[in-house]
Structures are given as C-alpha cells and as structure tokens.
C-alpha cells in the first residue's frame, strides 16, 4: 500500500521540473519578436523625424549665414549692435547660472538630506518655471518693477532702474532657469543618501569640510550637467527677456532678441549669422551633455560595485 501510494507522488514531482525547464527556455527566447520590416519602419521614422525637424534646420541656418561668404558673416558678427547683444547675453547667462548654481546646491541638499515642514511646497515652487509661460514670468516682473507696479514708484523716486535694463534681464533669466541645477541634483543626492556625510561628521569633519571632501565629489558630474543645461537655456531665452528688456537697440537686446529684430528688418544674413552662434551653442551643449551623461553613468556603476 505504501509503495503504490508513493509512486504517483514521485511522478507528479517530476512535472514541475519539466515546467521550469520550459519556462527557462521561454526566458531565453529573443525579446524582439517584431518582424524586421516593423523595426526598420520605426527606426526609419525616428531618423526621418530628427532629420526633418533638427538636422535640416541646423544645416539651413549655417548655409544661410554663410550665403554671402565668410567675410560678410564675420562682419555681421563684428557689428557694434551684435557685439553688444553677445556681451549682454554672456553677462545675463553668467550671473543667472552663478545664482542658480548656489541656489540649486542649497535647495537640493535641504530636500535630499533633511525633513522639514513645507518640503513639498519647496519642490513645487522649484518646478513652477516649467509650467509657467516665460512671457507670463516677464509680465510678473513688469507688475513688480514697472512705473505702476508694486515697487515701481519707490524705485523711480530713488532713481533705481530695473525694468528695461540689465537687472530685469538678469532677474527674468534667473527665474526661467533656476529649476535646472536643483532638479538635476535632487534625485542624485537622494539616491546617494547621507551615510557618507554622517560618517565624515562622526570622524570630526566640519560642515564645509564634509561638503568639499565628500558631497561635492559625489555630485560633481550631475552639477556640471545641470549648469550646462541652465547655461544653454539662459543664452537662448526669448519670451521673458523680450517682455522686460524694452528692446533698446545696442543696450538691452540679447542675441535671440537681435535675431528677431534683424529678421523683421529683412537683414536675413545678419539674422542667421547671430542665430548660427546660438545653434553652435546648442551643438556644443549636446556634445558636452553626452560626455557628462557617460560620466554620471560610470559613477553610478562604480557606486554599485
């Protein structure tokens, strides 16, 4: 009786083994089961879309900028108005990136390392420029610093010029670009945790020493990545700057604003010459972005091992 009862149990015990084997075979099957023509169609569509909307416009910008020769191209860039726009763009981008660098590191450190009331509100406010139109953000500064604005009369009585001057351009540029550094650092610092900082402090390191020796080396590639994106957006910002600049030629026109002015005046080659500098910036940003992404990925693999 015992042998008869045991035999079916042994046979049934072999069935899951065969099932496991079939599952393993199924796992080893190729993940891509689409026909070759489907894969080629998808890849071709992606390449064609990028060519039509990215590569072709860049080629047209540079070809139009050089349509009258290199000499005319260089003279268009050497024009006093163009030099003023380039200088103002660099000033506004430099100041706004510096401010966002400091703010981004402090905000990311506070959000990633501490728990405090209003943390969710702070994250929401950081993301605000992503959801607000740049034109609206420019109008906010007009309402604040304009002649009929909230502090406009006081500024006028003290002979302080913010609107339609460099300070307003810097403020508008800073507003639309300040999420980039913080948003790049927050998930990176949250993933790293606070164990290394706590270990450094337990060994007697101070706050600044911990930041320079522990925190900064861990976030350096992410920080550079955020600064890169922030700078690219700052130099190419149009909407907010257009509202607060006043379009004073030779004084408050940045490179994007000057491109629009020259284009409206039918100075096509000069307009495309300035635009080519912005396009060149985009290409350099793309190359550096790819390098930094590789560095960040290498750092994450190193931390895993």
From TrEMBL:
**What does the subunit section of this Swiss-Prot or TrEMBL entry state?**
The complex is composed of two ATP-binding proteins (CysA), two transmembrane proteins (CysT and CysW) and a solute-binding protein (CysP).
Membrane topology summary: Multi-pass membrane protein
Question: What's this chain's function?
Answer: Part of the ABC transporter complex CysAWTP (TC 3.A.1.6.1) involved in sulfate/thiosulfate import. Probably responsible for the translocation of the substrate across the membrane.
A GO molecular function term, named singly, is: ABC-type sulfate transporter activity
Primary subcellular site in the record, as a coarse category? membrane
Q: Which SUPFAM superfamilies match?
A: MetI-like
Q: Which Gene3D superfamilies match?
A: MetI-like (1.10.3720.10)
- TM ranges are 37-62, 82-109, 121-150, 162-182, 268-288
- What is this protein's name? Sulfate transport system permease protein CysW
Q: Which PROSITE patterns match?
A: ABC_TM1
Q: Where in the cell is it found?
A: Cell inner membrane
Residue spans making up a coiled coil are none
Species of origin reads Rhodopseudomonas pseudopalustris
A GO cellular component entry from the record: plasma membrane
| Alphabetic keyword roster | Cell inner membrane, Cell membrane, Membrane, Sulfate transport, Transmembrane, Transmembrane helix, Transport
Give the domain of life. Answer: Bacteria
The ABC transmembrane type-1 domain extends over: 86-293
**Pfam families referenced in this protein's UniProt entry, alphabetically:** BPD_transp_1
Q: Does the keyword Iron apply?
A: no
């Amino acid at each position: 009786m015992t042998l008869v009862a045991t035999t079916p149990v042994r046979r049934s015990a072999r069935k899951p083994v065969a099932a496991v084997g079939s599952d393993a075979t199924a796992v080893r099957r190729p993940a891509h089961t689409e026909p070759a023509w489907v894969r080629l169609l998808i890849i071709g569509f992606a390449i064609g879309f990028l060519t039509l909307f990215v590569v072709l416009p860049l080629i047209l910008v540079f070809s139009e900028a050089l349509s009258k020769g290199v000499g005319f191209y260089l003279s268009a860039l050497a024009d006093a108005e163009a030099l003023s726009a380039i200088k103002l763009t660099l000033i506004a981008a430099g100041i706004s990136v510096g401010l966002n660098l400091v703010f981004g590191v402090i905000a990311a450190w506070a959000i990633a390392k501490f728990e405090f009331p209003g943390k969710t509100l702070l994250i929401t406010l950081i993301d605000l420029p992503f959801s607000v139109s740049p034109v609206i953000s420019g109008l906010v500064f007009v309402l604040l610093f304009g002649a009929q604005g909230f502090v406009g009369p006081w500024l006028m009585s003290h002979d302080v010029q913010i609107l339609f001057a460099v300070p307003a351009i810097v403020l508008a540029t800073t507003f639309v670009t300040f999420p980039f550094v913080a948003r790049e650092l927050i998930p990176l610092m949250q993933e790293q945790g606070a164990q290394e900082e706590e270990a450094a402090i337990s060994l007697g390191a101070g706050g600044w020493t911990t930041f320079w020796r522990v925190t900064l080396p861990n976030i350096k590639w992410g920080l550079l990545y955020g600064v890169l994106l922030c700078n690219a957006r700052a130099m190419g910002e149009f909407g907010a700057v257009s509202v607060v600049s006043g379009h004073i030629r030779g004084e408050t026109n940045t490179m994007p604003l000057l491109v629009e002015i020259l284009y409206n005046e039918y100075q096509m080659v000069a307009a495309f010459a300035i635009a080519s500098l912005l396009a060149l910036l985009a290409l350099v940003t793309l190359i550096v972005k790819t390098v930094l992404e590789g560095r960040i990925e290498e750092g994450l693999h190193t931390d895993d091992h």
